[in-house]
């Protein structure tokens, strides 16, 4: 997978935007370190790789580098994924994932959405997309959830 490049810097507002992106990347690296240090997801295999993949996704969709996915970020994300949603649907999707009630999705919430036991619309769409990308690899049936994963 190609690394995220910042060649749109000038289009997006120049130096400040580049700085915001850098800050955002550093902030996410800290979050990842914290998640690993605290062993937040002991049952998850290949956690490092997964967190790196989520970081790439999150940075791609956090268009303004604010560190949060807001309504507009999610709208663009869904359009890119071929699943355009209206304003009400987007609010609902964010609400499913927004743990701290900020109205936006931060990296921690994004990780929890992907790795936590709760199913959400955004997670289903992202996982579907991920599976499509892996089509060339031989894949078995998706792993069944155990009863202990249920909320
Ligand atoms: Ca939030």
TrEMBL record:
It comes from the Eukaryota. GO terms for molecular function: actin filament binding; calcium ion binding. InterPro entries: AIF-1_EF_pair, AIF1/AIF1L, EF-hand-dom_pair, EF_Hand_1_Ca_BS, EF_hand_dom. The keyword DNA repair does not apply. Keywords: Calcium, Metal-binding, Repeat. Residues 49-84, 85-120 form the EF-hand domain. It is a peripheral membrane protein. The keyword Calcium applies. GO terms for biological process: actin filament bundle assembly; ruffle assembly. Its main location: membrane. It is found in: Cell projection, Ruffle membrane. This is Allograft inflammatory factor 1. It comes from Paracentrotus lividus (Common sea urchin).
